[in-house]
Amino acid sequence: MSKTVSTGEAGTASGFRLFRPILAGATLRERLVACLGALVGITLTGLICGLVFGQGPHIPLIVAPMGASAVLLFAVPASPLAQPWSIIGGNTISAFMGVLAAHFIPDPVIAIGVGVSLAIAAMSLTRSLHPPGGAAALTALIGGPAVTSAGFLFPLFPVCVNSVILVALGVAFHKVSRRNYPHAPVAAPVNTHGTADLPAPLRVGFRPEDVDAALLELHETLDIDRADIDRLLRQVELRALVRTQGDLTCGEVMSRDVVTVGLDGRAERARELLIAHNIRTLPVVDRAGRLAGTLGLRELTLHGDVGIAQVMSEARTTGPDEPVVSLAPSLTDGRTHAVVVVDGDRRVLGIITQTDLLATLTRLLSARAVAPAESVPA
């Protein structure tokens, strides 16, 4: 059945579409944070430069490209173009290219073209590509008497000083707002067994060379780190698995009769429990029954009969209502043998091991294989 949309409704929908973020992952909160960050960053950059170098018409306290740098720094802090070296190096090097072009080329029209092209080449060679750098090069060429009189000092002040101050303020702002900056891509899984095999998550599905081939086929340059693309695609795979096979929850699959050890116990007692029950992970609980960590033979082998609190590791946890298939990344990382199911107060409800996950996935695959056959009429 088709649905007819009135002109008014269509116009309203179209109008609202204009305000939808064009960046993947962008939210209203993120945009508001970016606005606040730019307000603080640009204002303080100008104030600091004014206090340090004094104010006057002969001194440009802050250059216009800093506004564009602030957009990247505060709105898309994960972009490779918004990282500290890109901002500082890109702006400074580009401004130097602009001054260089102005110094050797008398024709301003030719100079501005050469200056920007040299800026792109220099930023590419120094791995500091930063779009506002093109504006920094132009500012060096057409900035007026204040810039011209500064000569080859212009790339250092105000351009480099502005960039350093803006980045420093950006780092502080993102730390306060609990955002990751400078952006550090999550390290790829490594083989924890000291062999030449690929880690288990990388042996199936797509591989890094597949991503590289796809990027070549698209004939596009994407403003995202290569490692982030890989991580994004693997997360998409996981979300698709959860969506299609997420009916079984951790609460349905977990073992409920959990063997635990007290936080104030000794390592020898934990070793006895692991061997007696033939298990690889032992949850550690405090006197209130809350999860404090986990122990395995790996930790106990490296130490004598010491206190459990001294050798336990941080526990991997989940909630009872979470899809059990969402534990696949944790239980295939080569280090985690079990995930502890806890409630809101971190009290232990159950535990899910690698064996539990394997049995669950086997059941799901078997069900999918049988379903089509059952649906065929006799």
Give a short synopsis of this structure:
The protein has about 375 residues and is mostly helical. The protein is about 55% helix and about 5% strand.
Helix/strand layout:
Blueprint: H1 7-17, H2 28-53, H3 65-75, H4 84-104, H5 108-125, H6 132-142, H7 145-150, H8 155-176, H9 208-218, H10 226-245, H11 250-253, E1 261-262, H12 267-276, E2 282-285, E3 291-295, H13 297-301, H14 308-311, E4 317-318, H15 328-331, E5 338-342, E6 348-353, H16 354-375
Parallel strand pairs: 1-2, 4-5
Antiparallel strand pairs: 2-3, 5-6
Helix pairs in contact: 2-3, 2-8, 3-6, 3-8, 4-5, 4-6, 4-8, 5-6
Main features:
378 residues; transmembrane; CBS-domain; membrane; mainly alpha; three-stranded mixed beta sheet; disordered N terminus; elongated
Describe what you observe in this structure.
Pfam families: CBS, TM_HPP. Keywords: CBS domain, Membrane, Transmembrane, Transmembrane helix. It comes from Methylobacterium hispanicum. This is CBS domain-containing protein. InterPro entries: CBS_dom, CBS_dom_sf, HPP, TM_HPP. There is one protein chain. The protein is mainly α and about 375 residues long. It folds into three domains: about 30-175, no CATH class; about 200-215 and about 225-245; about 250-365, CBS-domain. Helix content is about 55%, strand content about 5%. It has helices at about 5-15, 30-55, 65-75, 85-105, 110-125, 130-140, 145-150, 155-175, 210-220, 225-245, 250-255, 265-275, 295-300, 310, 330, 355-375; strands at about 260, 280-285, 290-295, 315-320, 340, 350-355. The strands form two sheets. The chain has a three-stranded mixed β-sheet. A three-stranded mixed β-sheet has the order 4-5-6. The chain is elongated, with a radius of gyration of 29 Å. It starts with 6 loop residues before the first helix and ends with a helix.
